[in-house]
Write a structure and sequence with these properties.
- The chain is about 35% helix and about 25% strand.
- It is α+β, with helices and mostly antiparallel strands.
- Strand 15 and strand 16 form a beta hairpin.
Length: about 775
């Protein structure tokens, strides 16, 4: 590719740009003259509500107003309108932030048009007088609950909107109300306001409102949340009146000093639980106790919690990254706000617990108990980015590991800028990306060293001179190791993702020269700087993503392409050579873990004796004793000494939730599908199985049951999809109940398929639905 001359100055560039603008201007004049384009106004017939060509009554289209055209909750004011000799109207339109779109509009009939926006193809729109039961109303018909001041919920409590009888004040500027449309027959109704100040238009969609909270869609956003009073929490409370009248709600919403203190009974419970800990934390990660199969306990208190908030659980997405086994744990929240969970661990772990989709970090070790106290409403008001950047407020840790948790929370570093990253995939070479990422890595490690060496100053009370101070390092070696590994792992994942994502883009774009450039083996040199033989890498949850990318990286995957029909043993021998000769690495713990992660699948493909012989061969390459133990455990799990065709579920709350769903189907084999409308593989498999379900509809021997949860399957998409797919026996559960089912069947991700026999016992808790017809006959034979 030709490179620009180094002598090409900024002055030259400016001259070139000016020439280009003059050229384009002259071309536009010439085109206008030659094409008989004349200035015009849009005909009145195009003003009104338009939506996609289906004409199904949904407001999925646009508003064409005499003063502007709507695009994505924004009013774009017409700039210059021309009419071409072909009858197509050409115009630009600009919003209040000076974003400009070009449009082409052709009137097809009095009730249909086709519209082209920018470089997009023409799209047909049909007129609809009242989409979503819309109707024009006056301000007197707008509920009084909306006619008030509304404040931001971003923590600043700024006055954003004031709705009056004739105008809306938006960010301290008054706008006259020109038009109000009320949408939907369901309560609460939605209201679209068109307002104007001089020549400036705004469109506001007021929705999901009550007397306390309001969602407003405008300026390209589907809807930010606002509150009626500054003192209200920055989080929408579902049953505000009920919460405000509860004891916890009254205490937390008051401004009295100490209103949010931990109640005495809860404080005593926390102290009693911490007193039960009789082991000391690890001194360092070189301890022989690093690998230890034992429970830990997470406890704590949510200031401001009340059951009327609408949730009673959180969840911890635990995973054994050595063996790929999931074991999510429900965090039970009691009515008084205390919470607890018992965690089965094999190593120390720095992870998160999740409440209402907010991720709270914590570090824990086997046989330890950690207490976490936080202000729930403050937590729920912030977004996940803030949490990832360690901007949590009012969080307190207690217990033997409190100091480590406080130190971990005190440091944040530069993470991936996904918008910039997506652009770099297509615009920079692997070498350039590697060099840029190296700068980010060094910057983060430098920041960590500064954090490590940042001293705190304390007074030496025994000194004769009270001004004498002592310097003390602020973080422990364990914390430094965790944070350094976190930086290294995230950097490595970004490097692996760059290769994977550019390969995907290259398949779509065969012209881009950057995408066609091959990735040299030196790109993977970052692996040489990582402590791949250190077990402490396992502490960070990022290790799970890293080991996945590592085992499937291109250098290793090419062995499967070169040896597609070779034995598993031969492929690992080839990978051993790649590890040493291409990647320049020695055998290490991480590489051994990648071997252990493959054994469950390989054991399942073999009978018991063949699987054992295979494991005996592979085990010779595993030097870590704990990894050998894990391999032995997985072999016993896949091929147990005492064979059983099914198992009974434990007597737990989770089982009770499940039994209420499946007990009516006793006497039949039940295929249970855990799915969601927002899960593409789930949706794809359900669609693939549609004809098979039709074929076996009404079968006397088996039945399909579908279980999802409310948040991952929004009701509109859910209802439409189950009708399209003709699904029967469908259950859409509250998140709390679904969390218990995750824990019961040990799955973090979906889809997940479970098969029950006619007695309601579990035949298979990880059924391969893609092999349904192949597996079906065997299941039916066993059930006779």
């Amino acid at each position: 590719m030709n490179q620009p001359s180094k002598d090409f100055t900024l002055k030259d560039i400016k001259k070139l740009l000016i020439s280009c603008f003059v050229f384009i201007f002259l071309i536009n004049i010439t085109i206008a003259q030659e094409s008989n384009i004349s200035k015009a106004s849009l005909p009145e017939t195009v003003f009104g509500e338009w939506q996609g060509e289906t004409g199904n009554g949904e407001y999925n289209g646009i508003l064409i107003h005499p003063g502007f055209i709507e695009t994505g909750y924004r009013a774009f004011k017409y700039q210059n309108i021309y009419l071409g000799e072909n009858g197509i109207y050409l115009f630009n339109a600009k919003d209040n932030q000076s974003n400009t779109f070009s449009y082409q509009l052709e009137v097809l009939t009095k009730d249909s048009i086709q519209l082209k926006i920018g470089d997009n193809p023409f799209r047909v729109f049909v007129k609809h007088q009242n989409p979503l039961d819309g109707k024009h109303i006056t301000i007197s018909e707008v509920p009084n609950e909306l006619k008030r001041s509304w404040f931001t919920t971003d923590g600043e409590n700024n006055l954003e909107f004031s709705v009056g009888n004739q105008e809306i004040t938006f960010r301290n500027k008054a706008y006259t109300i020109e038009e109000i449309v009320s949408f939907t027959s369901k309560e609460p109704r939605e209201y679209r306001f068109v307002v104007k100040n001089d020549q400036e238009y705004w469109m506001f969609y007021f929705k999901n409102w009550d007397e306390h909270y309001l969602q407003v869609g405008f300026n390209g956003k589907a809807g930010d949340m606002y509150k009626a009073k500054k003192e209200y929490p920055n989080f929408r409370i579902k049953n505000f009146s009920e919460y405000a009248s509860s004891a916890n709600g009254k205490r937390h919403l008051s401004n009295k000093k100490g209103a949010s203190a931990v109640p005495e009974k809860v404080s005593k419970w926390i102290d009693d639980e911490l007193a039960k800990v009789n082991s000391t934390p690890l001194e360092d990660f070189e301890s022989p106790e690093f690998f230890k199969r034992a429970n830990a306990k997470l406890i704590g208190f949510l200031k401001g919690y009340d059951p009327s908030l609408g949730f009673k659980t959180g969840i911890i997405y635990l995973r054994n990254n050595i063996t790929r086994e999931d074991y999510p744990i429900v965090l039970q929240i009691h009515p008084n706000g205390k919470f607890e969970a018992t965690l089965p661990l094999t190593t120390p772990l720095y992870t998160h617990f999740v409440i209402e989709n907010k991720w709270i970090p914590f570090y824990i070790e086997p046989e330890q108990t950690l207490s976490v106290t936080l202000d729930l409403l403050d937590l729920l008001a912030i977004n996940r980015i803030s949490i990832l950047q360690n901007k949590l407020k009012n969080i307190e840790y207690d217990g033997p590991l409190a100091k480590e948790n406080e130190e971990l929370l005190g440091f944040s570093f530069r993470t991936r800028d996904y918008e910039a990253y997506k652009n770099k995939i297509r615009t920079v070479s692997p070498k350039e990306f590697k060099n840029e990422q190296l700068i980010v890595l060094e910057e983060n490690l430098h920041q960590l060293d500064k954090y490590k060496n940042n001293s705190i100053i304390i007074e030496n009370e025994n000194a004769l001179d009270a001004k004498v101070h002592v310097n003390v390092n602020s973080i422990s070696p364990k914390v430094y190791t965790i944070l350094k590994n976190k930086i290294l792992l995230q950097n490595a994942v970004t490097m692996f993702d760059f290769v994977m994502d550019r390969e995907y883009e290259a398949r779509k774009d065969t012209i881009n020269t950057f995408l066609q450039e091959s990735v040299p083996i030196e790109f993977y040199d970052f692996l040489k700087t990582m402590p791949l033989n250190d077990k402490n890498l396992l502490v960070s949850t990022e290790f799970g993503t890293f080991i996945n990318r590592f085992e499937y990286c291109d250098p290793f995957m090419k062995t499967s392409v070169l040896m597609p029909t070779s034995s598993f043993d031969d492929r690992w021998k080839m990978k051993d050579l790649v590890l040493v000769n291409e990647l320049g690495l020695e055998n290490n713990l991480t590489y051994e873990i990648s071997k252990i992660r493959s054994v469950a699948f390989e054991f399942g493909r073999r009978d018991k004796e063949t699987a054992k012989a295979f494991w005996d061969r592979l085990k010779k390459d595993i030097t870590n004793p704990f990894l050998q133990e894990e391999g032995n455990r997985i072999l016993e799990k896949v091929h147990p000494t005492v064979q059983q065709t099914s198992y009974k579920l434990p007597d737990t709350k989770a089982t009770n939730v499940f039994r209420e769903i499946v007990d009516p189907f006793k006497g039949k084999i039940v295929f249970v599908d855990f799915w969601a409308t927002t899960c593409a593989p789930c949706v794809g498999e359900i669609k693939r199985m549609k004809e098979i379900r039709k074929q076996y509809k009404g079968n006397k021997d088996f039945v399909f049951v579908f279980i999802t949860e409310e948040r991952s399957s929004p009701i509109n998409h859910y209802t439409k999809f189950v009708q399209e797919q003709e699904l029967e026996h469908i259950y859409r559960l509250p998140l709390d109940d679904y969390n218990y089912l995750r824990e019961l069947f040990k799955f973090n991700g979906i889809p997940r398929y479970v098969v029950l026999n006619k007695d309601g016992n579990v035949l298979n808790d990880d059924f391969p639905m893609h092999n349904f017809e192949f597996e079906l006959n065997g299941i039916l034979e066993e059930s006779k």
